[in-house]
Amino acid sequence: MNRLKQQTAILAAFLLAVITASAYDFKAGGIYYNILSEQDRTVQVTFRSVDTTSYQNNIVNDYSGNVVVSEKVVNPASGTTYTVLDIGPNAFRNSPELKSVTVAGSVTTIKEYAFAGCPALTAVYLSDSVTSIAEGAFFLCDALRSFSVPNKITAIGDKTFYYCSSLSSIRLPESLTSIGESAFLHCKALASIDLPQSLRSVGAYAFKECSSLLTLQLPAYDVIYGDEVFWGCSSLKSVTIPEPVSNIPTCMFVRCTSLSEVNIGSSVKSVGYFAFSGCSSLETISFGDSLTTIAQGAFSGCESLSSVNLGNSLKTIGPNAFSGCKFTTIRLPDSLTSIGSDTFTLCKSLKTIRIPDSVEVIEKGTFLYCSDLSSVEIGKSVTTIKEWVFSYCPSLPYIYIPKGVTYIDYGAFEDCTSLKEIVVDDENPEYSSSDGILFSKDKADLLKYPDGKEIGDYEIPSTVKTIATTAFQGCNTITSLIIPESVTYIGSRNFYSSPDIREVNCMMREPGICYSDFQQKVYDEAILNVPVGTKDIYLQTYPWEYFKNINEKDFSNVDAVMNEELKVNVTDGCIRIESNAPVRVFDMEGHIIYSGNPTLIERLNPGLYIILSQGSSIKVMVP
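Above: the chain's sequence. Below: its structure in token form.
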């Protein structure tokens, strides 16, 4: 029995030691110490124990109140006197009742997480003997209000003051050369900071979400800054970026929503990804002639930005760089060679733009949703206009396509509701225009009928073989449509936006391929006229099969499309028209020959002509 009790006691002692593994060599004056060197008689302050039962082996401490770390300490067990050199890793960590610590002049190093997680700690006093403060030294010290970094410190480690949410004042010495990653992250009470001229590097997120920071003067040196250094400093009002700083890094000032003034030195060469994104109070920005690159999203969401000077050397603007900005115009320098996709998307106040001659490609969505854009000049070197470049620009009335453009995406002018005319340079090898309508050079492809151009009754020219996707999208005034026999393909999204179509004349004996749908109202009420003998084919072909009123007509006979109220007589190269309503006369290339009241049209060239009036049409041949 006695032996069993003895074994039980030993086991209990062992378990206790495991649960709270001791971390110190001796304790004196309420402070725990580890011996560094018996020969040199040096020690460091340490923590009490580790709770090995916890998932993260939590540090266990019982420091409280105001603690003073003296230069000398005596080991009560041996009577040996030691010099205190370090505040060791985790030394005071997780001391919920610790209020202040005063450290003796013999201490040279503050190790990793030495004071981390002390929620009541309001002050730590260090002497100038301290030469190193390691990572996370004051991590999550919520009550720490002010701190003076000793004069010999050259580096502040990563996460040193991480989430010190009450820290409102800090002094940085002129000896400081580097600030680590996340060093002051979420120090939301910090209102000002003087960065010393000695500084050479600042780690990523160093001052992120310091939401009370008001002003900032960066050192006059080309400091290496990490990403997101001042992200979310929502009270920051002004920043000076002096010479010789050459790069504004990625996300440096993202969501600095009060930032209204940025003074940028002429040495800046590049602006990083999303550098000023979401700076909703920023009104003006000006660069010198050193600037060559603006990266993706650099000024996106700067909804107050109304004045921009890009200098004269800029070569590249990245995607979304100015999306959502307020300016009415912006001068793009002649040095510019590349404009990224969606660069000016949602610039709703932008009225005029000139694409420099040095640009070859206008990327997708460059001017998407620019609702006030009314004047565009496309440079002579542009070869490619990609999808949605000018889509949803409801104020754009006219566009000129230079001779160098060899590719225009089908959605480039989608929903431009005021666009009445697309004009192509006569020397363009790929495209042409007729009556403001965009065609391929040989007019075999009808590419875009401008959304804002009145259409009413329209006969597609007999040269056309394909109708491109979205060619008629947005043309909501179509009342009558003649599709010639030459058409073999109709792309999608062409006629659904035209609810008032009353008549469709399909002259194709083979319906071909049509991916364009019509509104149900058109299927129910409009008349579909098809060649004699083809009704059964159309009844089996999408989308014509959905028309409820399909008639067969002989399109080779003029009377087959004649209205009793529209009479035409052809004599001696003239056309005499009698009608109760205005008429329009087209040649077979789609050019309007006459528009107005019925009359005698003289001196016509031989050929086939189409006469439209009140939804009816007549083909006549002038010999």
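The radius of gyration is 39 Å.
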